[in-house]
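Aim 2 progress update. The chain analyzed this quarter is reproduced below.
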Amino acid sequence: MDLYIYYKVKDADAASLQTAVAAMQAALAQRHGVAGQLKRRPESKDGVQTWMEVYPSTPEGFAAALDSAVHEAGVLAWIAGLRHTEVFLDVVPPCA
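Predicted structure tokens:
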């Protein structure tokens, strides 16, 4: 299962958030073997950016580990609003 987490961040907090998320993702990669990606929309609106974390092919229990890592890293201090999580599964071709 792939996790897509998006949220807002104020322009002024972007550098601090990027540092925290990069460290968090490095720790998650080491502990769980999941190479996270960090993305953002190219534009900023009213001083706020939209960011997305992507975690492909996550193992069972990774969502709980990610939640703990977010709190440990203090990521929520730089987010404006809530983190929204979307879960996607690979589409398996039908059997012939």
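The chain has one domain: 2-88. The mean pLDDT is 95. These observations will guide the mutagenesis experiments scheduled for the next reporting period.
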